[in-house]
């Protein structure tokens, strides 16, 4: 309510009562004073009304009421694009189709910093200039900047008032009534800044460039992506003058297809006369300095461009800035959205609070999306561009150095409040925090559970990036950190092994074991667990002697420390039995080990426990190889029956037990039953595990062997050939499955020669 309204309300009853002669009798003696009071109250009402009318008159002057000015024939201030702008043909075609269908002919071009949003808009404007009556470039980082630009346009149109906002509104009205114009709102930050300043008719065209995808509510959206490697390499060759395809592709990969980075690299090569190979070497050594150089003219460099985004994200949400710093030390791959769940005690304060509240973490993601510092945001994952990570890591290192120098100067002189408790965190601390977060994030249930394999696979690239960073920093580790970091590496490694990535699993487990040996004793329970995992991977790769030597160390240590019936001791005995069985000469020792393990498991856990079923199947395999086929059949059937009831028919362990049952039937001469079992098992393994999993290749070899025995040489040869190709590519040419396939192909060749020679006369 205005002041004038309040006065009017006070005056109304007084004047009414005076006019109606209805004042109380007690007031009649002072009636004369009512008239001067009314006049006195009326004065400010009159003054306020006149002032409001003058303001309304100033702000409501229509554009045609301004002093007549001749409108310029060509009104155009949109700059030309850079000379070496890359021709994004497909994106220009999308612009045309989006503007044709878009309500109000407004288009949002959005994406990360340095992706080429402004240059795309300028190039589009250049192409539209022959058909446009007017074009205006509107810097849009703030509402004031927008109104300033529109006011400048208003002066060119003959529209001018003493009020910037009023002029801007009148310009918008003018555009709504005229055709053929083009506006480019560049680098818009906040949707609210454009409120009331955006033409809404279809008589012209509006382009908005922004890192903030929230402008989608105002316009049709075009997301600019980094160049594919092939297009990036082509751009580098053309811009640099060096047509080496090999180094162009390598450099394009290092720059992750970011157009501004590609432009900087090409211009640097052209200006300095070096080739792409030399730039690549300089980039790997002095990445930060090169990215901070900028390009010709007044365009910001990649690092400066991203630094603006970093600062903006910190202004919007400090926790978002901290999340970005943590994840920049990980890989430029999908990051699980729930990665930080359960890790709040490891994180700096604002981020720790955000991960405990879904809505607060949504605000973290929103701040990163508004600044385009994440290239993908989905319900299950987030992703950061490679160069964003590279520059942020360098930014953290530089900031740490500045913090140290400043602290030395100010220590003991002044105590500054610290808004960001992680401002002084070193790269080493961020890296260690990332590894600790991964350790908390990985489910630690039985690694045979194939549902945990997918999680381990999603964490693998981040584990590798963090471990590489740890090695580069050469940061000292204490015993607790070694347990945590080697533990998460080994747990991911054994799951990758179970998933079928034998070589990756062996590499991770060996690295974890080497880490343990730095400060942990060999009889330490943690060291022995990782030794056990490493031995399992070596067994899978067919390196039986190495696996046996490790188990021969583990079993006595666990027996002495834990006793012969401890679950960890029994696990090591069971695994050693598998190695001895495959060594053939160790079948007797394998049988002794399995009989002991099975007896203890049956007594302690019962015959239906998974560990007991595993031991039952393993003893049956030993009996099969030693020729006791009736005993082997009994144990194999029991394992499949109990295992299927406990885990279901599509569990990877059930596949193992079913495979053994099929082999027993084959050796008993029941080829039809054996073939049926192997065909069904191969189909299930292919569906659940994939065609390249080592277990699937084992089933392929076993089915081929039965087919060969049945005389189907052609199909057996095809399956052996497929197994050899996939085993060599995904498991290794010296792996057990590759060796079995190779031997199978020799057998099929022999069988084919025998069939071609015909029966002996």
TrEMBL record:
InterPro entries: DUF7779, NB-ARC, NLR-like, P-loop_NTPase, TPR-like_helical_dom_sf. Pfam families: DUF7779, NB-ARC, TPR_12. One of its GO terms (molecular function) is ADP binding. Residues 315-397 form the DUF7779 domain. The lineage of its organism: Bacteria, Bacillati, Actinomycetota, Actinomycetes, Streptosporangiales. It comes from the Bacteria. Keywords: Membrane, Transmembrane, Transmembrane helix. This is Tetratricopeptide repeat protein. The chain crosses the membrane at residues 30-48. Residues 89-214 form the NB-ARC domain.
